[in-house]
Model the fold of this input.
Amino acid sequence: MSEYCIISDGSCDLPKDLAARENITVVPFYVSFDERNYMKEGVDIGVRDFYQKMVDNKGVFPKSSLPSVQDYMEVFEPIIKQGKGIVCICITSKFSGSVQSATNAKNILLETYPDAKIEVIDSMVNTVLQGLFVLEAAKMCKAGVPMEACVKELLDMRESGRIFFTIGSIDYLKHGGRIGKLSGLAASVLGIKPLITLKDGEIYNSGISRSRKASMAKVIELLKQYIEERKIDMKKWQLCIGFGYDREEAVAFQKQILSELGGIITEAECPCFQIGATISVHTGPYPIGVGLIRKQTLC
Done:
């Protein structure tokens, strides 16, 4: 039995069965279509149902809300009572206050359980890339890597993470107030497809395109450029596809990436994970991209 447990907020966007298999506990975000009634993602509303509702109700912009301090306390306390430590991995603090909720929960519980070992980590990433990061933590936990060493390795890994992606339209970015983060993006041009890079916990403008096909091709160019610039050995890195409503498009995109990378990774080494509500409220129903991060080196 491991000395600690791995916890993540719902931004990790891991499939439920995979999270359960790897003993990862997920604390959900909330989502609302009317700003009054909030539902726990993955509990009160499934991701697929969430996307269908967005597609069926164009012009309606859903909102997300972070897990509360109480949500985290309800997960943390039973683990502490078992005498185990906690490594809790949260979405980049530039996007959400989830890491602060978890930290507040930690501090409250330490008043009652002063010997508890609780580490809250700002992953500096989000969505499917956070999922890869969390899976690497689970791998170390399962292999018996001590908690302190696991945390140090995670902190060393996180700077390497990148997401390169595009979206169907900029309307959701504009409505959610994220457009200001993308300096130079011609928001007034109809039909443009922005290219966006997430690094160091922030999103950056990486160009624009006028067609979906061209924007997806440019996402692959950004990926290849990053791999070449860093002289990355893909055997030592994790890669995944993130997609929204359209799984068939994601599978085709996956095949295109595998081809462009010349067979250096297999289909199993480039899984397709569905992007959840936490991010898609800002991207709309048609985000697609690729994330990669260095693998842990301790086991």
